[in-house]
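Hello everyone,

My group is preparing for a crystallization screen and wants a predicted model to guide construct design. The compound we'll soak is NDP. Before spending weeks at the bench, it would help to have a computed complex in hand. I've included the protein sequence and the ligand's SMILES below. Output in structure-token form would be ideal because that's what our pipeline reads.
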Amino acid sequence: MRVLVVGAGATGGYFGARLAEIGRDVTFLVRPARAEKLAARGLVVKSPLGDLHIERPRTITADGLKAGEGAFDLVVLSCKAYDLDAAIADMAPAVTEGTVVLPILNGLRHLDALDAAFGPARVLGGSCAIISTVGPADEIRHMSELCSITYGERDGGRSERVQAIDAVMQGAKFQAPLSEKVLLEMWEKWVFLATLAGSTTLMRAAIGDILAAPGGHALITGLHEECLAIAAANGHAPREKVAAQARTTLTAEGSPMTASMLRDILGGGRIEADHIVGDLAARGHAAKPGSTYPLLALVYTGLKAYEAKRAREAQ
Ligand SMILES: NC(=O)C1=CN([C@@H]2O[C@H](COP(=O)(O)OP(=O)(O)OC[C@H]3O[C@@H](n4cnc5c(N)ncnc54)[C@H](OP(=O)(O)O)[C@@H]3O)[C@@H](O)[C@H]2O)C=CC1
Ligand SMILES: CC(C)(CO)C(=O)C(=O)O
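Reply:
Good plan to model first. Here are the tokens for the complex, ready for your pipeline.
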């Protein structure tokens, strides 16, 4: 199976490298600057599951794809949401009749754009769980043992094509559960992530530090309740066990956990405010006109203020 991983950043770099490590046919679609760095230094992963250095990762740029690289069987999309439109245009030549697209972005709105570009039949549901970042020497820093890609047909079932993907993923140093409830799992992940990203970015602190502050517990659990209510209003109420596990993780005293969005803010980078928080609130309002989500609204204001400051300072 020919696999194209779009993006070689914190997530795509990790999962793509782990597939290449076990001999899978992996090519990274990268932009020219990343292509140069990968050619010079290789793809380096620092991980508690074992470091890895792929000296010559196979890469291609959008121009190379246009020039004709042939079709890919699986395209794993790992860009940030703000790069989605350009990534779709760049990867388009790789998507032909039999290609399956597996996005691992947080949130859900990207599915609409992918459906519009490639047709819903080609697009799987998917998400990833990992705590990773790109370090100062462009190495992929995997910061805990957590690493998985959950994927599947959006209407459930174990089609031949997802079973073929299962065969490709098994054996790599990450979990890859093939899900028959992938949309529900995407919503469950989104509810968890929006609470984690919302609280840690608003407070610019890790979960344990927020819990140590007066009102911290109420902030996190209140935000979680709002996100749960939005998922339920949209017909995707997280399963009780999953919601309870999320709450335990989000209220674990002393927890150093933060969201990738906080790491992006602390590094002065762009963030997926509209994709992860704005879209969730919008879906709440759309499903239940007149409903209010005050904590989520506060989080969104904070993120948009960060974006405004960042834009002003860049002028
Ligand atoms: N990091 C984490 O811990 C987690 C992240 N996520 C989610 O995963 C998604 C990806 O995040 P993450 O991997 O951290 O982001 P990164 O910014 O680390 O990586 C994204 C990569 O996509 C590349 N890219 C963007 N546009 C294109 C394009 N047109 N062609 C080729 N490459 C492109 C970027 O390239 P370039 O190098 O040129 O900028 C970058 O390397 C997000 O939705 C995030 O919320 C989910 C779970 C955990
Ligand atoms: C929930 C978590 C921490 C793990 O995948 C994540 O998605 C993120 O930080 O963006």
